[in-house]
Design a protein that fits this description.
two-stranded antiparallel ribbon, 3 helices, alpha+beta, elongated, about 15% strand
Length: about 150
Amino acid sequence: MGMFDSINISASALTAEKTRMDIISKNIANANTTRATGGMPYRRQMVVFEENKDKSFSSYLDEYSNKFTGGGVKIREVVEDSAPFRLVYEPGHPDANEDGYVMLPNVEMVKEMVDMIDAQRAYEANITAMNTSKTMLMKALEIGRR
């Protein structure tokens, strides 16, 4: 494990959590969009994280000497939620069907807000981890000066 690996890992998590917050913001912004691409309502999106494994040649050699082989986190993909759309009775709406029901996105505001708080807390935790790593490196440099 290199000297700056912990900072790089925290940085990858900060990038991933920021993207997660961007997707959640997109979901909230489109909570009432009845016509998205294809004429259907907007479908909620979710971010799928994956461990970022550095598979360079040196990492294969290091696997046998180090137990630590992780490289942080990366976004594997952004997937659409397969939950059904909400049906709301609004006969005057331009997108209402013959029975007067409008299909609304499968975005639940409470769920999105909870996910946003979770992403925010994870972001803050990674900033704390990065600052702690920086403090440890500075202390190590002070020891080397003496």
